[in-house]
Amino acid sequence: MKYIDEFRNPVAAEKLAHKIKSSGTRMRIMEVCGTHTMAIARSALRPLLSPDVELISGPGCPVCVTSDTDIDRAIAISLMPDVVLATFGDMMRVPGSESSLSDAKAKGALVRVVYSPLEALKIAKEQPDKKVVFLGIGFETTAPAVAATVLKAKDENVSNFYVLSLHKLIPPALKALLSTEDLHLDGLILPGHVSAIIGSKPYEFIPREFGIPCVIAGFEPLDILSAISMISDMKKTNPAVEIGYARAVRPEGNPKALNVMYSVFEKVSALWRGISEIPQSGLDLKSEFAQFSASSFDVELPEPKEKKGCVCGDVIRGRVKPNECPLFGKSCTPESPVGPCMVSSEGTCASYYIYGD
Ligand code: SF4
Questions:
Q1: Which of 20, 32, 34 is nearest to 350 (CA)?
Q2: 326-335, pLDDT tens digit by residue?
Q3: How far is ligand 1, taken at its centre, from the CA of residue 96, in Å?
Q4: CATH number of 13-53+173-239: 3.40.1380.10, 3.40.50.720, 3.40.50.11750, 3.20.20.150?
Q5: Measuring from atom 1 of ligand 1, which residue has the nearest CA?
Q6: What is the pLDDT of residues 101-114, one digit of tens each?
């Protein structure tokens, strides 16, 4: 507890905020990761730094960037006979084109909320007469555990375990975003968890090609404030990628986790809500693991339908803030979400709704 308190000390936070504000530079900074978005809102860092620092949210919420087509595919698979679809709880209420996994469950689909891919594998072993499909959503943080589970399934000859891999990679999405949008950014706060796996090197193109300083940050208020202070210092020198979360992140990342991930998965194109199809930004099972892939299950998908008035795509790109959406807090609330950004526990709209701007 003492350890955590060190990173939440209000006096130290005030001091850092004062240092940032007295530097005299106005900054517009994107926090890429949804966990940072929630931490910033929960700790009321926006009002503490306003108007000198504007914090905008980026594409680092895995639930939010999953496309309607991929959600529709997961729902259609869950409705197949003899299928158990195992998913993290966040995905249950995310609306696809016509319905959600919760709706499918209400119609009789066997949808199970799990806390890890290993739990899905356990269900597969307990129910050999069912096809158990794990819905693989997440970034570089979650993919190694899913890969390890596939290796275990192969080792143990579990033939009724499948993965619908919708995993995505953060650096290609940042490249696509920064290449197509002029967001006038003075800095990026990079995700701590993803970087614990991939390290700092895959982001080096950002200062080199776009001249934007980056800091990998932890998730406590002082981690985030000190990342902003480091960005402010770098504005006066050379932009670079710095690690502000050295207790978890090394420049080379976690080679063991990366080895496991790339022994099972390969990079493929992926469709990102709000950004488009990005080459080499997703992970699918390699051909030698095709027997575990649910991507080729034959399902009929509904026509993709736009959610009228929802600007989730623009929120993910950092173009608009949630409270600029006409539906925010009216027809769209966490109890009755119109878009995924209001459902996810890392969603920008949910963070604004729960904690305010
Ligand atoms: S408030 Fe709701 S409708 Fe508006 S962008 Fe966010 S999720 Fe979509």
A1: 34
A2: 999 999 999 9
A3: 14
A4: 3.40.50.11750
A5: 328
A6: 999 999 999 999 99
Which segments of 83-200 are extended strands (E)? Answer: 83-87, 110-113, 131-136, 161-165, 187-190
Residues with CB under 6 A from ligand 1: 310-312, 315, 322, 325, 327-328, 332, 338-339, 341-342, 349
Q: Which H or E element spans position 283? A: strand 276-285
- Portions of the chain given CATH number 3.40.50.11740: 64-169+253-292
Q: Which residues are CB-neighbours of 45 under 8 A, at least 6 positions away?
A: 55, 221, 224, 225
How does pLDDT run across 230-280, given as a tens digit for each residue?
A: 999 998 888 999 999 999 999 999 999 999 999 999 999 999 998 889 999
Select from 3.30.70.100, 3.40.50.11740, 3.40.50.300, 3.40.50.2000 the CATH code of 64-169+253-292: 3.40.50.11740
> For 146-179, what is each residue's pLDDT tens digit?
999 999 999 999 999 999 999 999 999 999 999 9
